[in-house]
Amino acid sequence: MMESLYQQLMARAFRLLSRKARSTAELRAKLLEKAPGEEQLVERVIVRLQELGYLNDQQLASDYAALRLQLKPMGRRRLREELRRKRLPEEAIEAALNQAYDQTDEESLIMRAVRKWVRTKGVPKTKADAKRLFDHLMRLGFEYDHARRALREVSKISLEE
């Protein structure tokens, strides 16, 4: 019976991981939903998946951070929150952020966000428009100083780049 439950949990883990990459904590919670009170068995499944290379929080954090920055410009703060929602360990999050922002300059990310804003909504003409752009940059997780600098530079942006 115990081996049968182990095999069921392994099968469930493989099904869950085939749909999307998950952190160790996310997978543990999902497996415990199916087998409450079977912490030791779930840990055995987790360890085996890590041995097989199917579960790697550091790799998940790095891949997720790189992909998100490629798809959408965002600041460190917002990306950190997204990684935390995936229940990744703090050291994996910090390493992934450092790696991602070493490869992609935060200034170029904020300028990508500003260009997109200008393309869709036009150059801010009033203080209210400038405030909307600034608020947008803050929601994207950029630092206050970077957002202020980008707002000052917005008039210099040429859409032909």
Summarize the structure in words.
The chain is mostly helical and 161 residues long. The protein has three domains: 2-52; 57-103; 106-156. Helix content is 75%, strand content 0%. The chain has nine helices and no strands. It has helices spanning 2-19, 24-34, 39-52, 57-71, 76-85, 90-103, 106-121, 127-139, 144-153. The longest helix has 18 residues, at 2-19. The mean pLDDT is 90.
What keywords describe this structure?
single chain; 161 residues; mainly alpha; 3 domains; 9 helices; 0% strand; elongated
Layout of strands and helices, then pairs:
Elements: H1 2-19, H2 24-34, H3 39-52, H4 57-71, H5 76-85, H6 90-103, H7 106-121, H8 127-139, H9 144-153
Distance between termini? 65 Å
| DSSP E strands, number | 0
- Main β-sheet, in a few words? none
Poorly predicted tracts of residues? none
Domain unit count: 3
Succession of helices and strands: HHHHHHHHH
Radius of gyration: 21 Å
Helix run count: 9
- The mean pLDDT is 90
